[in-house]
Amino acid sequence: MNHCMIQSIDILGPSIRQGLLELSLYVLTDDDIRAYYQDGFVVVSGLLENYEMSSLVDAGESLATQHMEEGKLKDGNFQLHEFGPLFSQKPFRDVALRSKLPRAAAELLQLDSATQNLRVLKDVFLAKGHESKSSCGWHVDDQLFWPSSYQLPTTQPDQSGINAWIALDDMPITHGGSMAVSPGSHAEDYPWKSEALNALNFDDKLGNGISKDDLFELIQKGKIDSCGLEKVAPHVYDGIEINRWLFHKTTDVTESGKQALRSLLNSQDEDHSGAALFKRYSIRYVTGTTSLPGGFMTEMSVLHDEHNLAKELNEVSGGWYPKCWPSVDVDVDEEINHLTRNLLPVAQEKLGAIMAELMGLFKTS
User: How many CB atoms lie within 10 A of CB 235?
Assistant: First the structure.
C-alpha cells in the first residue's frame, strides 16, 4: 500500500522547479510535477516511511474501533467522519506536519522558503463501510472541508492549496469506497467547470460574506448541497468522466467490497479486530497568507473567536493552523495540547448549539 494522492486545488503554471530547494531535498520527480500540472493530481508511492504508515494505520484502526464501540458510526456518505485528528492523535499530527508530505506540497505549489510558509488548513479522517447508504457525487470541497474563500486563481502558478489523500486500507477499484477524480477538471477552460461551479453556488457572494440567517434559508430551501450536482444540473453531471478546483467524488462500495468488509468483520485477524471499514486520511495544505472567509461559518477557530473571520492564517493565534513548511514550530505540540484542552471545548459547545438550531429548522419546515 503506502500510496498518497496529491490533489490540486487549481492548475499550476507551466514551469517546473523554480529554485525552491536544493536539488538533493526534492521529494518529487519532474515526471510527478508534469503529471500534476496536466491532470490536477499525482499518485506517489513511498512518500511516507514505513513506520509513519504503520502508526497511521494503527491510529485509524483505533479511532474506528472507538467510534464503533461508542455507537457513533453513521449510515450516510461516510460511517465515520472526524475533523482535526491531528489535534488529539500524534500519529496523524506527525504525518501532517513532519513527514515528506508538506515538502511535496511546497514543491507542487512552487513556494519560496525565504518568503512563504505552508500550514494545515484542515485534516479529516474518513471511513466508509458496507452499511454506507450514499456517496458524495462530483464536487469540489465546500467551506466545511476547505474553510477559505471561493476566489478562483488569477495568477500562475496558482498557490491555492493541496489536498493530500492517504489510503489506510487497500481499496481496489473492484471494491469501491475510494475516491474518483476527473482528470484535468481543475483547468480554467475545462468545458463544464464554470457551469458546474455556478450550479453548486461556488461564488464570492456565498463564499465570503453570507450571514447565518441567509445561509440557513438557502440550506432549508435545498439550494446549498456541495454533493448535489446531479440534482441541480444533471446534464453537467452526466457529462463528467470521472480535481479546489479538481472535481472528485466518493465511489460507492460495490457488492464485492461489501463482501470483503463482511469477511473482514467475521475474521479472527487481530489486526482488524474492530470496525471493518475502508479508511482514509486527508490533509488540506495552504499558504499562511490564505484568508478565512468573512461570512458566517462553523470553523472551530472562528467559533472560539469571531475576530478570526477574514484573517490570514498567519494572523490566527492559538495553533489552529499549524505551520509545517519550511519548518515546524518547536512548541507546536505544546500549543496544540493547550488548544485541545482549553480552546476546542468552547468551540465544540458553540457548534453543538448551531447544529441544534439548524436541525430545528428542518423539523419545522
Answer: 10
